[in-house]
Amino acid sequence: PPPEPPPAGTYGVVYAYPKIRWSEADRLDIRQHFEYLSGLGVHTIVQTFSSRLIGTGTEAEWLILLDEAQQAGIQVVARLWPLEDWNDLEFDLGPIQQFFSVVQDHPALLAYLGLHEPLEQFDSDQLREYYRAVKSLAPELPIAHNMANPAYYDRSPRWPNRDFSSDMCDICVVWYYPVRYIHGRPILEKKLFRKMLRENRRLIDRQAPDTQLWCLGQAFSHLQHPRQLRMPTPEEMEKIYMAADHEGVDGFLWYPWAHDDYDQVLGDPDMDPQRQAVRDIYESHILP
Fold first, then answer.
1. Are 69 and 45 in contact (CB under 8 A)?
2. Which ranges constitute the DSSP H helices of 57-123?
3. Of the candidates 97, 203, 103, which has an alpha carbon nearest to the alpha carbon of residue 148?
4. pLDDT of residue 259
5. Class of residue 25 by CB neighbours under 10 A (exposed 0-12, middle 13-18, buried 19+)
6. Distinct helix (H) and strand (E) counts, the chain
7. What is the mean pLDDT of the segment spanning 129-141?
8. Three-state DSSP state, 150
9. Whole-number pLDDT of residue 98
């Protein structure tokens, strides 16, 4: 039978813990982070796990974070990193197999995050090959990819053989960052954001109806980016979430861009209003 899908209405954050490697000495710090996140209404996180533990005899340290997540009532989408899993000819899933041998039966593990923006590198046949290979290692574990905007690639003359299908991923994570400056003016591109979500909702419903659509919500500034991305205000964060909810996403994750930006989102005192917005959105729009 197919794996049980994650619950609809998933709400959380990406890169919830700023380290990708930890030990027993970090357990209390992890616990405090997760208690804090739980207080914001977060019940799902994407977390990177260090591949450098493989072969060291310390692989059980991966379980520390999962144990603490379970205690906090948080589910984890795990990403093993860094990985060189493609050699230009085939996928090497040996490290993932070793990771699964330790973590795959943990009750806090919700899914595995496999590839980042794969449509720029892999065609549909290769993505299906990857999906089936990972599924052979952990048949019950949902597989997610950070897909960016698959509706842009699907049946595109510029990107041949990028037709989206159900055997690529169980969770398709998409995004468009709408909060920016244009000629010095603060802009929220809500129509473009909703258009991206609507096109991908229709694509999935038509070609992969069992696949979940998750959205990354902008929770960072990156003024050096060509689009001059800026930090959303709390009011804009609510508009972003409401737009995604209106377009029928199955999951929503606030995204800080990179681990190095963690403190900007969750640790910087100046971001208190944004953190409160995460909680307010949960209480106003997600709580039954």
1. yes
2. 62-72, 94-103
3. 203
4. 53
5. exposed
6. 9, 10
7. 97
8. helix
9. 98
* Closest C-alpha to 213, from 188, 196, 238, 191: 196
- What are the structure tokens assigned to 253, written together? 């994750």
* Residue 100 · residue 61 · CB < 8 Å: no
3-state secondary structure of 91: strand
Considering only the C-alpha atoms of the chain, give the largest distance between any 2 of them, rounded to a whole number of Å: 54
The answer, yes or no, to whether residue 288 has pLDDT greater than 60, is: yes
Whether the per-residue pLDDT at 263 is higher than 90: the answer is: no
Per-residue confidence band for 1, with pLDDT thresholds at 50, 70 and 90: very low
Residue 76 near residue 47 (C-beta atoms within 8 A):
yes
> With contact defined as beta carbons under 8 Å apart, do 223 and 186 qualify?
no
pTM above 0.90, yes or no: yes
Q: Say which amino acid occupies 162.
A: R
Question: Hey, which residues does 116 pair with through a beta bridge?
Answer: 146
Task: Give the three-class secondary structure for 137.
Answer: helix
Interatomic CA distance for residues 222 and 258, integer angstroms: 11
Report d(CA 7, CA 122) in Å as an integer: 29
Tokens of 25: 């000495």
Q: How many CB atoms lie within 10 A of CB 97?
A: 15
Task: Give every CB contact of residue 201 below 8 A, 6+ residues apart in sequence.
Answer: 213, 247, 248, 249
179-207 confidence digits (pLDDT tens): 999 999 999 999 999 999 999 999 999 99
How far apart are alpha carbons 275 and 261 in whole angstroms? 14
Measure CA of the first residue to CA of the last residue in the chain; give whole Å: 30
DSSP state of 118: G
Q: What pairing do the DSSP bridges indicate for beta strands 10-14 and 251-255?
A: parallel
Residue type at 9 in one-letter notation: G
- Please say if the pLDDT value at position 2 is more than 60: no
Quote the CA–CA distance of 210 and 103 in Å, as a whole number.
25
Cα distances from 238 to residues 33, 171, 182, 219, in angstroms, run 23, 23, 21, 11
